[in-house]
Specification:
Oligomer: single chain
Number of strands: 8
Low-confidence stretches: none
Strand content: 15-25%
Radius of gyration: 17 Å
Shape: globular
Bound molecules: 2'-deoxycytidine-5'-monophosphate
Helix content: 40-55%
């Protein structure tokens, strides 16, 4: 394999399997994996825990923006190779995946100042290249010069079924209908917000993985990776 280290941007709708794909590709290539959604989730958790989100689910934008200098996000690699998200030194990996965070994250991630702060962090994480980052705007805004851009899609029902199963496996008490409603609602907010809405970059390769096994997906990705490296 080539020594050239590239940036791989994987974007797509929520629960499209982006993070599984990005994690597996990072491990196959020896690249670092960064889950940009975890960063928006960490800011949202901070806002929830500090009373910055109203009963109507809307954030107090000015208060969230004022709190940004107090929010420090890190990733710590675990002995099994997985990464946990740290918020001000505390491991919040489990907490940020809960439905209360999923339900509040889209309006928080629509705040331009939140996006500017996190995009700057994401860009600095990619300085040495050799990174796989997944999110909504990685190929369009964070790394428009990424050598490999993938845009993942799958139907809302397929994605809700996956997220529902994941949550049940983790012992969460949720209904499929609630998970589907969250997926549809987030799709709408993520793709219609004014600031860097979710859209496919013109040079991104589209992938609908609804009917693909993980192995088929891995092989497909590895092929795209080799092409992007010029092998
Ligand atoms: O990938 P995820 O579902 O964990 O992302 C959580 C939320 O964060 C998602 O609803 C939209 C937002 N997000 C974003 O706006 N930009 C990104 N690069 C990643 C996530």
């Amino acid at each position: 394999m080539t020594d050239k280290r590239i940036i791989i941007a994987i974007d797509g709708y929520s629960s499209s399997g982006k993070s599984t794909m990005a994690r597996r590709l990072a491990s196959a290539t020896g690249y670092r994996y960064i889950d940009s959604g975890a960063m928006y989730r960490a800011v949202t958790l901070y806002a929830l825990d500090h009373g910055l989100i109203g009963a109507d689910g809307n954030p107090d934008t000015a208060a969230v923006v004022a709190a940004l200098p107090d929010i420090h996000i890190d990733f710590v690699v675990q002995p099994d190779g997985s990464q946990h998200t740290m918020l001000n030194g505390e491991d919040v990996e489990t907490e940020i995946r809960r439905l209360r965070v999923s339900n509040a994250v889209s309006p928080v991630s629509a705040i331009p100042e939140v996006r500017h702060a996190l995009v700057a962090m994401q860009q600095s994480l990619g300085e040495g290249r050799g990174i796989v980052m997944d999110g909504r705007d990685i190929g369009t805004v964070v790394f428009p010069d990424a050598e490999l851009k993938i845009f993942v899609d799958a139907s809302a029902e397929t994605r809700a079924q996956r997220r529902f199963k994941e949550m049940l496996d983790k012992g969460a008490q949720v209904s499929y209908e609630d998970v589907l409603a969250n997926v549809v609602h987030r799709d709408h907010i993520d793709s219609t917000r004014a600031e860097s809405p979710l859209r496919r970059a013109d040079d991104a390769i589209a992938l609908d993985n609804s009917d693909m096994s993980l192995e088929e997906q891995d092989a497909w990705l590895m092929q795209r990776f080799k092409e992007a490296c010029g092998d």
